[in-house]
């Protein structure tokens, strides 16, 4: 037997209660909504952190959010290429993928990365269903450019399987491999795949989990980290010549998603513990938000006004 006084002496976690309560306004905005989460290979390098990210996604599902996970695995593919002495070559952020290399890319993304994520997620209750973009023709593509080999340009997204899984309260975990219009399969950039999927399923938000704190105007100058930008500003940056490598497909995908009605896109640091929860359920916010706020007058204001801004945005 244990007396109540004893339990209290161990410390009542008042702050924990406050934190949970503070989540309410944010939770009201996202519960029942579909959120596409793109998990990049760069933020997946630490398996413990990756397992925590999967647990946070399950928590969001339990809280009524409908997460759809789209993942890459560029670093794991690089390692496999090096093991097989295949050259790693990118043109405009896209991996040059020969026919033989395609088999390896598919093996790594669907056989290794996807299944590790499924395993980590399903340690918390078997909600994760791992699929490739080829399953039920989720991602359909044609050859992008002959010099890239089997790199696909997405032509359409079939949303049915994703919608069915979400309706049945599963969490789709989608590897960025596409089925060809001409048969066969294609390697597609996972940022691009996530943007297309978010647009096609009418997601509320898209969140890119990467290994930096967000988008820097002049990378890596820490003072140039962008907290918020409008769709117009993002479009101008995509058209300009300041962006390099990994951020080109991410920002282009933010633009595509917002153009199709997704309310906000976020680029956040997935290596920060509980980054997703902090972004979605607290006043703190994280990284770079594209779109989102109704007006610049709400920038850098108190949490209460920020909440008001979010309500306006949701009208
Ligand atoms: N302007 C920029 N802002 C932030 N990161 C940038 C920028 N330009 C290039 N990067 C690089 O982009 C990387 C993230 O892209 P990438 O490696 O493709 O990640 P992921 O695996 O998450 O898709 C960062 O680690 C950083 O080195
Ligand atoms: C065409 C192309 O470049 N495909 C990517 C697919 C994986 C990916 O996008 O992974 P990240 O999200 O970790 O960058 C590749 O082969 O690396």
Automatic annotation (TrEMBL):
Name assigned to this protein: Acetylglutamate kinase
Entry GO MF terms: acetylglutamate kinase activity; ATP binding
Residue numbers marked as site, Transition state stabilizer: 38, 250
GO terms for cellular component: cytoplasm
Gene: argB
Reactions accelerated catalytically: N-acetyl-L-glutamate + ATP = N-acetyl-L-glutamyl 5-phosphate + ADP
Organism this protein belongs to: Adlercreutzia rubneri
Tagged with keyword Kinase: yes
Pathway, per record: Amino-acid biosynthesis; L-arginine biosynthesis; N(2)-acetyl-L-ornithine from L-glutamate: step 2/4
Family: Belongs to the acetylglutamate kinase family. ArgB subfamily.
């Amino acid at each position: 037997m244990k007396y109540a006084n004893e339990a209290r002496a161990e410390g009542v976690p008042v702050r924990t209660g406050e934190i949970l309560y503070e989540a309410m306004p944010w939770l009201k905005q996202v519960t029942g909504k579909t959120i596409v989460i793109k998990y990049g290979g760069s933020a997946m390098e630490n398996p413990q952190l990756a397992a925590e990210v999967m647990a946070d996604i399950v928590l969001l599902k339990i809280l009524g959010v409908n997460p759809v996970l789209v993942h890459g695995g560029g670093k794991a593919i690089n390692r496999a290429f090096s093991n097989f002495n295949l050259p790693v070559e990118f043109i405009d952020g896209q991996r040059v993928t020969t026919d033989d290399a395609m088999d390896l890319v598919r093996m790594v993304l669907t056989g290794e990365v996807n299944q590790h994520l499924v395993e980590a997620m399903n340690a918390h209750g078997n909600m994760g269903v791992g699929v490739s973009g080829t399953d039920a023709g989720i991602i359909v593509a044609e050859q992008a450019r002959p010099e890239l080999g089997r790199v696909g340009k997405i032509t359409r997204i079939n949303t049915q399987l994703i919608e069915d899984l979400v309706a049945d309260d599963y969490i789709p975990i989608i590897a960025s491999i596409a089925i060809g219009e001409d048969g066969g399969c294609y390697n597609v950039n996972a940022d691009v795949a996530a943007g297309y999927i978010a647009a096609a399923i009418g997601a509320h938000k898209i969140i890119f989990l990467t290994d930096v704190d967000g988008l820097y105007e002049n990378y890596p100058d820490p003072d140039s980290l962008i907290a918020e930008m409008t769709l117009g500003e993002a479009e101008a940056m995509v058209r300009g010549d300041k962006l390099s490598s990994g951020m080109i497909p991410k920002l282009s995908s933010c633009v595509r998603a917002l153009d199709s009605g997704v309310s906000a896109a976020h680029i956040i640091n997935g290596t920060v513990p509980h980054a997703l929860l902090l972004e979605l359920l607290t006043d703190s916010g994280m990284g770079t938000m594209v779109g989102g706020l109704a007006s610049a007058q709400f920038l850098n204001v108190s949490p209460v006004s920020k909440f008001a801004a979010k309500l306006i945005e949701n009208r």
